[in-house]
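[09:14] KT: can someone run the structure on this one? pasting the chain below
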Amino acid sequence: MSRDEKIAIIGSGLIGRSWAMLFASVGYKVCIYDILSEQIDSALKEILVQLKKLEESGLLRGKISAVEQHKLITGCTDFKECVAGAKHVQECVPESIELKRKVFEQLDAVADDKMVLCSSTSTMPASSFTEHLTHRAQCIVAHPTNPPYYAPLVEVVPAPWTNGVVISNTKSLLEEIGQTPVVLKKEVLGFVLNRIQYALLNECWRLVQDGTISVEDVDKVMSDGLGMRYAFMGPLETAYLNADGWKSYSERYADTIFNVAQDFGPTPRMEGETLEIVHNDLASRIPLDKLNERRAWRDARLAGLAKLKKEMNEK
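[09:31] RB: done, C-alpha cells below
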C-alpha cells in the first residue's frame, strides 16, 4: 500500500524517526533531511531495527510489513530536494528559536502555496518564528507526545494567521496515521500537555524538597495511583465520575481543592540540593548507562497499553 504523496521530515533524531515511521505505516513516501549523511544512515538503520521489533511483537502499525514500510523511507542531505513535492513538512530540529527561524525561512523559500509547514516544537508558538514569512498562513505546530509511536496524542497549535484549511488538513492527516490530535483554540506558551506536566513536576519537586516523600514513592503516586485513573480518561471526567457530576463534585471538594492549592508555595527552580537528591536517587536505580534499556522497557509497556486501549475501545 504505497501512496504517490510525499512527506518531508527535517531532522533525523528520535522525533524525526518516529514521525517517519508513523507516516510510512499508512503508505506515505517519506524523505528525511539532515546535514550529515552518516546521521541519515544511522537513522535509517535504527528505523529498520525498530520496525522489525514492532513486527515481531505484534505491535507494528499499519497493514504493510516492516520491510515494506522501511522501503518507503529515504534520506537526503539536500534540503530543497527533500522538501520538493511534499504535501506536508514536519520540522524536528532541536528546541532553539534561532534554529526554528532559520529552518522555516529555508522552507518559506522553497514551499509552494499548498504545502503544510509544520513544527514539532514542544513549547514555542508558531507565531514566534513564522510572522515574517511569505507562507506564514501555511505554518502550524503539531507537538507529539514523546515517544510519538507509542503515545498518540498530538497538540495541533495554529498561529493567529494559520489558514483554517491547514488546521483541518493537519488534523485529518494525524488521524489518518493513527494519532490523536487535539486542536488548541489559541496559542499559549508551552501548549497544554507541558503546562499540565510542569504543574505535576513542580508539585512533585516541592514535596521531595520539603521532605514530605521520597523520590521513588512520589513516582508511585502517579504510576500506581493517578496514572491508573488517567490511562483511559482525563482528570475532569475522572472527577465528574467520582461524584454525581461536576456540580456535585464542586459542592463537595471545591473549597478543599482551593485551600490545599494555597499551600503549594512558589514555583521551584530545579537546582541545588533537591536536584542532587532526585538525580542520585534515580541514578541509583537506573544507572545512566542503562537508560536505553529502561526506555525500551517503557516503550514496550506503552505499546502494550496502546494496544489494550485500542482493543477495549473497539468493544
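[09:33] KT: thanks! The chain is about 55% helix and 15% strand.
[09:34] RB: yep, looked fine to me
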